[in-house]
Write a structure and sequence with these properties.
Layout (H helix, E strand, L loop, with lengths): L2 E7 L7 H7 L7 E7 L7 H4 L8 E5 L6 H11 L4 E5 L3 E3 L3 H8 L5 E4 L2 E3 L5 H20 L12 E5 H6 L12 H11 L3 E4 L5 E3 L5 H24 L10 H14 L2 H22 L6
Length: 287
């Protein structure tokens, strides 16, 4: 078995089925799928069972909720593949997705990441969210000769299984986000590299409204502060800020789209991120 696709899920409605349908269409077939059921109610077996004739798929049921990072760790321990390929249950992989990661996995020290595109183009809040995420990914492709990245998103990345387990996987301290940043910090500290795989793209389906959008961005800010605190407690160098050039690109792309509503939401997102970071730094109560 060359690869194991690991999908953590807490049983959100409207997700997972489309994710598994897309995996049935992969051009590369030598992979298994492990759906990690993070103690969802109802259980996920009924959603997974229809795919058993089309995929080498298993459900790993956890006894109590542990969060996405620890659920991914459980999937990695259970996996048989040499390459772990992580995917969120609201993402749709293109038909060459697994093949692209297999082709790029030539060095165990490379943590690989593909683009996460907007799968809900009719949702203005998803458009604003992805304008930042995609600008960040693309800016580092342009600036670093197409390969280096500052971090990867846990929704779409691949890593050598032995190296991932030797590093301890995701830190279970991160229950509410930030686990991917923490993993990247540890990976880089051990001399690894984060490399982009442009052909390993997925579509991210985001069902957002105004309130969910702001809460999401506020939570990202809180997670960023937790990561910085975690890094300081373990002696890692402080993380730097993104360059002004990134925000200039976001502004330019927004103006090019002629969507001033999107620009306004991007601005609000950064305000919400800053507010969340400040709230966490000041000892804000857990949500």
């Amino acid at each position: 078995m060359k690869a194991t696709v690991i999908i953590p899920s807490s049983g959100r409605k409207g997700t997972l089925t489309g994710t598994l349908e897309a995996l049935c269409l992969q051009s590369f077939r030598d992979f298994e799928v492990v759906v990690v059921d993070d103690a969802s109610a109802p259980r996920l077996e009924d959603r997974v069972r229809p795919f058993e004739a089309r995929l080498a798929i298993q459900t790993l049921r956890l006894g109590s909720p542990v969060g996405a990072g620890s659920a991914r760790n459980a999937g990695a321990e259970f996996a048989r593949g040499d390459l772990l390929v992580f995917l969120d249950d609201d993402c749709i992989a293109g038909p060459e997705w697994v093949h692209a990661y297999i082709g790029a996995a030539k060095d165990r020290k490379h943590l690989l990441a593909g683009p996460i595109r907007n799968g809900s183009p009719g949702n203005i809040y998803a458009n604003a969210y992805h304008s930042v995420l995609e600008s960040l990914f693309e800016s580092h492709l342009r600036d670093q000769a197409a390969t280096r990245l500052p971090f990867v998103c846990a929704a779409n990345f691949a890593v050598d299984r032995k190296q991932f387990l030797a590093l301890g996987g995701f830190d279970p301290e991160f229950r509410d986000g930030g686990e991917d940043r923490g993993l990247c910090v540890k990976w880089l500290a051990e001399g690894g590299l984060l490399r982009a795989v442009p052909d390993a793209s997925v579509l991210h389906r985001h069902d957002l409204d105004f309130q969910r959008f702001l809460v999401q961005q506020f939570t990202y800010g809180r997670s960023a502060t937790r990561v910085r605190r975690w890094m300081a407690s373990r002696g890692f160098p402080a993380a730097g800020l993104e360059s002004p050039g990134l925000y200039a690109r976001i502004l330019r792309d927004g103006l090019a789209s002629r969507s001033f509503a999107r620009l306004g939401l991007v601005f609000l997102s950064q305000v919400a991120v800053a507010a969340g970071a400040g709230w966490e730094a000041a000892g804000g109560k857990q949500r």
